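Obj: model holo form, ligand = NAP.
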Amino acid sequence: MNVLDSFRLEGRRALVTGGSKGLGRVMAEALAQAGADVAIVSRNLQEGEQAAREITEATGRRVFAGRADVTLSVDVSRVIDEAQTSLGPIDILINNAGINTRGLAQELSEEDFDAVVAVNLKAPFLCARALGPQMCERGWGRVINLGSILSVVAIAGRAPYCSAKAGVANLTRVLALEWAQSGVTVNAICPGPFATDMNKPLLDDPEKYRAFVSKIPMGRWGELHEIAGAAVFLASDASSFVTGSTLFIDGGWTAQ
Ligand SMILES: NC(=O)c1ccc[n+]([C@@H]2O[C@H](COP(=O)([O-])OP(=O)(O)OC[C@H]3O[C@@H](n4cnc5c(N)ncnc54)[C@H](OP(=O)(O)O)[C@@H]3O)[C@@H](O)[C@H]2O)c1
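Output (holo C-alpha cells):
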C-alpha cells in the first residue's frame, strides 16, 4: 500500500468526545477530512450541532452531534447507541473531553478533585469500556486518549488535572495490553499548551502566558491545527504497530 493511502479513513466512523470545540473540534474535522464519518459528543448540544454543520460543509462527511455528560455511564451508552444508529458501528474513539480546575491542594474541594478526575480519567474508561469490546469483535479499532504534558511533569496548583492525566497515560497502556491481540490499538496524544477555552486563565494573564512560553523550547504555544496530523496518524492504518504509546505534541517541553 502507498504510505499516504494508509492514512485514509474512508469507510471508518469515529466518535470524538468534546468534539464541539477546541482540540476535539480540530481532530473531528481532521478525521472527516481523511474520509471518516464522525460523531461529536458534548453537554452543550447547540455548540455540537453547529460544529457538526460546519464540518459537514467543509468535508462533505456525515457528522452526528450528540448530547452527553461523559462522566455518566447511562449517558455514554445512550449517546453511543444514537451515534451508531445514525452512522453505523464506531471504529475510532477519541477520548478528548476534559476540564481543568486550578488551585493549590489545600484550596481545592473534594468536589473539585472528583469533577476533574471524572471527566479526564473516568470518562475515557467508560467510553473505551463501552466501545472497545465491539471493536475487538470486528477485529479493528482505534482508541486515542488525550493525556497532556502533565501526564509526566507536574506544575504546582494542578493536583486534580496532573493526577487525572497521569492516570490517562497508564489507562492507555493497560487497555493497549488487553486489546493488543484483537486489532485494537490504544494510544495517547499528550499536548503542551494550545490556545483553547480551557486555557483562558493563562491566555488572559500576560505574565502566566510568558511563563509558559519560557518552558517551551520552540518558544511558542501550539497552533490548533498542529494536533490534527497526530490524530489522523493514530486513527489510521499508518499506526498499525503503535499501541500503548504516548505522543507528545509540546514544542519540546518534555524533552528537557
Ligand atoms: N488546550 C491545551 O493546551 C491542552 C493541553 C494538554 C491537554 N489538553 C487536553 O485536550 C483535551 C481538549 O482540551 P481543549 O483545550 O480543547 O478543551 P476545551 O476547548 O475546553 O473543550 C472541552 C470539550 O470537552 C467537552 N466536555 C467537557 N466536559 C464534558 C463532559 N462532562 N461531558 C461531555 N463533554 C464534555 C466540552 O463541551 P461541553 O462543555 O459542552 O460539555 C468541550 O467540547 C482535554 O482532554 C484537555 O485536557 C489540552
